[in-house]
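User: Teach me something about this protein's shape.
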Amino acid sequence: MHFYFFILRIAAFFGHKRARRLVKGQRQAFHDLAVYQEAHPDRPLRDCVWFHAASVGEFEQARPIIERLREEQPQRPILLTFFSPSGYEMRRTYDKVDLVTYLPFATRRNAKRFIELVKPSMAIFIKYEFWPAYIRQLSKQKVPFYSVASIFRKDQYFFRWYGGSERRLLKQFTHLFVQDQDSIDLLKRYGITQTSLSGDTRFDRVTSIAGHAKEIPAVRQFVEGQQQVIVAGSTWPEDEALLHQYVASHPEVRLVLVPHEIDREHLHSIFHLWQGKHVLLSEADEKNLQHTRTLVVDQMGLLSSIYQYGHVAYVGGGFGDGIHNTIEAAVYGLPVIFGPKYEHFREAKALIANEGGCSISNYEQLEKAIDEMLQHRQKTGMNAARYVESELGATDRIYKALFGKKMTK
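Assistant: First, the predicted structure itself:
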C-alpha cells in the first residue's frame, strides 16, 4: 500500500492529472471532516453510517440504500467517501448524505485517525473495496462493517496461493452481501460463511431511473417516426469506428451516439470520423436534425434517459478495460450489443444466456447482430427487460438486513 501511494505521489509530481487530483483530494479529506464538524455541531458525524465507493459505478450500487436510509431514518447522519477523483467530482454535491469526501490513503496511520474522527456506527464497502488498513482498524474498534454487491471469482487475488492474508481479511467482515450463488460457494470453500445472496442494487436503481426518465426534446425530434434507431452509450474510439461503418452503409438507420468522454479531443476525433456529417446535441435545432443520421450527445448525465428513444442499444468499453452499464439500456426493453471484454460482468453473461444481448468482436459480427436484433427486437428486447425484472429486490433485502435487525457473524 505504501509503495502504491508513493508511486501515485510521484506521478502527481510529474503532472499526471488524475494522480494529482487523487493526491490533492485524499489530503483534503481530513480538512473536510474538520470543516463539517465545526459547521454542524448539532449534527456530528459520530455514529454515522459510512458508505465507501470506489467511483461512480459503485456509488450507483450504494445509492438506493442511501436514499432509502435517508427517507426512513432522516435523523441518522451519513458519510460518503470515494477513492476515485471522477466519483468524487461528479457526486460531491449529492444532497442525500451529510458529507461527501475522499477516502484518505489507506495507511495504518490514516485509517486510525479517520475512524477515530468519524466514529461510525457501521461501515459499508461497495463491491470491490477491501482496504486492509481500514478493515483492521474497524475490527479493532469493534465497528461492524459490511460488503455490499460484492462478487467473487476464483481468479481474484484472494484465492491465489499467496492470498491467505487477504482471505483472513474477508473473514473479519461482519457480513458480505454478494451478487450470485457462485460467490457464496467460492467463499464457503475457504471457510468464509457470513454471506447472503442479495443480488445487485443497480437493477433497482435503473428501474427507478427508467420510471422517471427525462424528456429530451431534441432526441425525441431526431428519432420521431424512425423504425431503426441505435443508441450507443459510453462509447470509445474503437466502438465509434465500427458504428460509423455500419451507419455509413445502412441509410435507413439513425444513431444517437453518447461518448464516454466529451472532451474536445474526443469530439474532434468523432468530427473527423464522421467528416462533420453529424449534429451535436448542444447545437441541435429543427433544421439541422432533418439533415443528419447521427446525433452526438455532448452533455453529461443524459444517457440513462436517452435509451428510451432507441430500438437497439450498443454499450461501449468492450474493446478496452471492460463494458459499461448494460442494464441501463436493458431496462427499457432494448436488446444490448457490446464488445468482447465482458467476462467479468455477470449481467452481460446473463443477457446473452437470456437471449437479450450479444457480444461482438469485429464489424461483420456487429452488422449481423444489429440486423438480427432490429428484425427481432420485440422478442429480444422483452428478454432483456424480463431479465432486469427478475433481478429486482436487492435494495430491500440488504436494507432490511442492515437496518431492520442486527446482523451477526
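Now, about its shape. Residues 222 and 289 are 6 Å apart (CA to CA). The longest helix spans residues 17-39. If you'd like, I can walk through any region in more detail.
User: That's plenty for now, thanks!
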